[in-house]
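Protocol step 6 of 9: fold each sequence in the batch and record its structure tokens directly after the sequence line. For illustration, a two-sequence batch is reproduced in full.

Sequence one:
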Amino acid sequence: MAINSMGFDIPTLDQIIEDIGNRQKKVFPDINISPATPDGQLNGLLAEAIMVAFENNLAIYSGLDPNTAEGIMLDRVCSITGIFRKDGFPSIATLEFSGVPGTLIPSGTIFSDNNQPKNEYSLTSDVTLDSNGSGTGIANSTVNGPVFSGADQITNIETLVDGLGTVTNPDAVITGREKETDKELRTRRYKSVALPGTALLDSVYAEIMNTEGVIDCAVYENTESTASPEGIPPHSIFPVVFGGTDEDIGSAIMRSKSLGCGLYGDTTTEWTDLQGHRHVVTFQRPVATRVYIHIEVVADTFDNSVEEDAKDRIMNYINGVRNDTEECAFGRMLIGDDVYAASFYYPFHDAAYSIANVLVGNTSPGDANLLQIDMDSISSFSRDDIEVVEYTGGP
């Protein structure tokens, strides 16, 4: 047994004990190896040690296949093709401040939203209010993971700063994530097997997706000698990237794109090659499309607890789909993914109430079964944009 043409075949503990006994009887035909005898008990201990060795060998054998490897073995197999497990990173909020002109808001200042429990965000660098008393800064959630705050929810100043009057976030935060799970890493490796290649859309995609902080990307190309209907210039690629820093993304693009290939997008950064030449790199950040969700509930008693539970289920499901811990038949609700109302029935499969109807739209309330998302856009969800009402349409 063990390795054969069909794979790694492990015997059972009883089979090992039987094999040991048969070998002993060939040498000592009259030996008594029943379980109650000392020899029988010794055989049981020996068989258990052999079984442990088989299981360890199976773990090593399984660890050579990325489809079955786990933990550190999966990390090692993925590293062969240049794929490394992503650490967790915080959610990112763009904050707008107002107050006394010239006020210095130091890095590390803490702000929070109005959720219960509240989410806290730490300013990443100093911000000085301009002559109009306005300023903009970036803040990270104080914990790694899918912390979410909708637009205009971060309004509390936890660390008092003289001269600072108000704070808010005009857009929903860019959701962070926890450390990549085995399932997520295995899926990303499967999508990124083209990473070592060059001059291929897949290799550009793989290189960007392997960049720290990147949650999703889409890479489009125009191989024609005239501009595409979407406005992509001739012989150019159009990378649309959600998450990550501009500099890291620019470096990933330039390491993988083919020579002479043009770039298109509204975000610009610079990259310096090994010869010291500086290159201007352009790509696109996805435009947020606000999604309104309308839910009609059938419940024995419709009250605030039902409404809050429904909103919790929707937001947890969206975050789960985007982080690959939940599955959705209609995509991951990321770049270019249309939003189907039908996808929001699943979170209620074990609820104590029923869902009569779900609608989505880009105006309140949602009024359609499908909201189409442009190729360079991404759906933006907020708890405040979910409307939960009691169904009144009949039996």
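Sequence two, same batch, same settings:
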Amino acid sequence: MIDIRKVIEIGRVNLLRQVRDRSDLFFVFVLPTIIIVALGLQFGGAQLVRVGVVAPAGDAAATALVEQIRGDGKTLDLRTVATVDELRNLVERGRLEAGVVIPDGFGAALSGTGDVSVTYLATTGAVTSGVRAPIDAAIAKLAAITTAARVAAGSSGSIAAARPVAESLYDTVPGITIEARTVGEAGMFAGFSGFTFGASTQLVLFMFLTSMTAAGRLVWTRKIGVSRRMVSTPTSVATIVAGEALGRFAVAMLQAGYIIAVSSLVFGVSWGDPLAAGALITLFGVVAAGVALLVGALARTPDQASSMGVFVGLAMGALGGSMIPFQIMPPLMQNVARLLPQSWTLLGIQSLIRDGGGIASVAPNLAVLAVWAVGVMALASWRFRKAITG
């Protein structure tokens, strides 16, 4: 018979050991966060481009141009800078991606007949190549209005009077519209935003790795006789095996809970349908616990278990798409990945994030994970039972 109360207590003790081990805190909490941030910044986490602006105070035309450049505020982060020298220094040091200098007397110059120059500062870095587009568009609009006002003023003689009329009619004048169409298949990151893609891959990778690191404690408890002493008490072997499996599962779910909480609250990651995502993560947690239990039963020393666990975790993570995106793997490697629970978990989660859907949409993924969970947990329980009673 399995004593549920004792199973829960054994699992709780294992979880507490993991949390209290300071050497593991970095790998459980800090390292996943660092990697998610790095991947998020690389694949679109930084949405705003920093642009410094030097503009004359109290100049209505300069203020209007700045607001036109700012647009909806979703692309450029405009920051006021006091002097041109300070702006140049900030751009050169990478504190700003680009800078715009609007000269003194800008409004008065627009009402005159000469040319007006706006200076654009940027480094040769690739990030600056796409910054000029909204700035050029704002200046082009201002130039068109100014030209129209000057032309109209040729007959009326008042540019100041012609400018409001030109501004009000600007949007009614037919122009050239560029229609952009996407051809070919969508890229591997299509449908993902910000930190979403990196968070999904690291969730699968670290759930498995963290559970693997707990395998060494199974060997340690056998070496110091804790397992045998439990067997000698009125505690069935089935209860001990279930408790140790629950401990590994709790560690994996602790890791999952942390990554989901941080990515959702701090980075705004949406994980799709909660029920479907929870089912995928729970089944994968059972798989990770079963493999950790099996490694702990097969290893002879704690160091061997830790080394074997890290190797297995990294190898299965790499082949399953947690390090190399599944979509860019060669066909042969994709077939190999299809044999691993990591790929089914990762593709299921990414499908929920990108395409929506619920339990029905990831039913094949859940079925494969259920087979893996039952198979590996049965094998691990049999082997661990032999290890503590043999």
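Proceed to step 7 once all outputs are recorded. Observation for sequence two: The chain has two domains: 4-43+192-389, 49-172.
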